[in-house]
Amino acid sequence: MTLLIEPIRPDHNKDICAIIKSVGEEFGAIGEGFGPSDPEVLAMSQYYTREKNSIYLVASIDGSIVGGCGIAPFAHSAQTCELKKLFLLPQSRGLGLGKALTLRCLEFAKEQGFQQCYLDTLSSMQSAITLYEKLGFHHLERPLDGTEHSGCDVWMLKSL
């Protein structure tokens, strides 16, 4: 098995869009207020660029895209970034890809000078929450001002 993590390219957009939407549906993240409905999902490579202090990493197994994860400024903040759209197909879970993607994104965030990382998710995504806790994210009582995802019910923050 060959695992590859690389920055998103335009030819990845279609596959990542399908993965984000199908995994979102699996966990009930459907419609307004959830990440899979964000306009950027249709063309992720256009939204996640170094010029925008953001990156989206794509994970492949044996040449097939199985998921991804990104970092972008939160609410146009210079200090706070957001971990965004960590979605993995069921067959790729449990291999350490979520951790590897998240750690690479957090390293990028530090390189960009961000001081803290925010994320929002769903309580149904328990394995992701467990990963975030192990990586040092702590739970917040409510979302940070400026959050785009009103449908989420878990909010977390980590100092970088």
From TrEMBL:
> By its UniProt entry, which PROSITE patterns does this protein fall under?
GNAT
Q: Which UniProt keywords apply?
A: Transferase
Report whether S-adenosyl-L-methionine shows up as a keyword of the record.
no
Query: What does the record give under GO molecular function?
Result: N-acetyltransferase activity
**Sorted alphabetically, which Pfam families does this protein's record hold?**
Acetyltransf_1
Q: Which InterPro entries does this chain map to?
A: Acyl_CoA_acyltransferase, GNAT_dom, NAT_camello-type
Q: Any keyword Oxidoreductase?
A: no
Q: Where is the N-acetyltransferase domain?
A: 3-160
Designated name of the protein: Acetyltransferase
List the top taxonomic levels of the source.
Bacteria, Pseudomonadati, Pseudomonadota, Gammaproteobacteria, Vibrionales
